């Protein structure tokens, strides 16, 4: 079980436009998503995050992704964000996020990166790119980490019950969902189908 209090499927909306964001996020909330990430390398990301936070605060947790430095973290904290995802291990970002009681998923791939993150205060690790590590690599990494550290594979996760179930059996506590959920310019109907399918699979796995 994860320490997260809500569905541990993190929806990654990389590349989403400010114009489309509200409609897409509303659907995610409707089907049961709670943690919704807008990466900072999306167009007008700060504007989008501010809009979504003001609209949906209390209904979901709007977060910033691809947060690589303290300057970016301070900027999103001022917007109200209390959930961030990093692609890298920056000890200062981890420490500052913890100071602000900001939920942080720290991006790692190797044991050295993982232990640097843990020693800096990380409790949640984003294992990325999971498709390069594969299930065997993910299992090997988890075998050397403290049991209380929660790991979330990201990259190459598909709406596939067998794949997701295998990761859960190995020790995954949830998933970050990228291109298999949303990609820049995706039609809304395709997105709805993807989001609904991921939630259906998650409910089946939990049963």
UniProtKB/TrEMBL annotation:
<dbReference type="Pfam" id="PF01081">
    <property type="entry name" value="Aldolase"/>
</dbReference>
<keyword id="KW-0456">Lyase</keyword>
<comment type="pathway">
    <text>Carbohydrate acid metabolism.</text>
</comment>
<dbReference type="InterPro" id="IPR013785">
    <property type="entry name" value="Aldolase_TIM"/>
</dbReference>
<dbReference type="GO" id="GO:0008674">
    <property type="term" value="F:2-dehydro-3-deoxy-6-phosphogalactonate aldolase activity"/>
</dbReference>
<keyword id="KW-0119">Carbohydrate metabolism</keyword>
<protein>
    <submittedName>
        <fullName>2-dehydro-3-deoxy-6-phosphogalactonate aldolase</fullName>
        <ecNumber>4.1.2.21</ecNumber>
    </submittedName>
</protein>
<comment type="similarity">
    <text>Belongs to the KHG/KDPG aldolase family.</text>
</comment>
<comment type="subunit">
    <text>Homotrimer.</text>
</comment>
<dbReference type="InterPro" id="IPR000887">
    <property type="entry name" value="Aldlse_KDPG_KHG"/>
</dbReference>
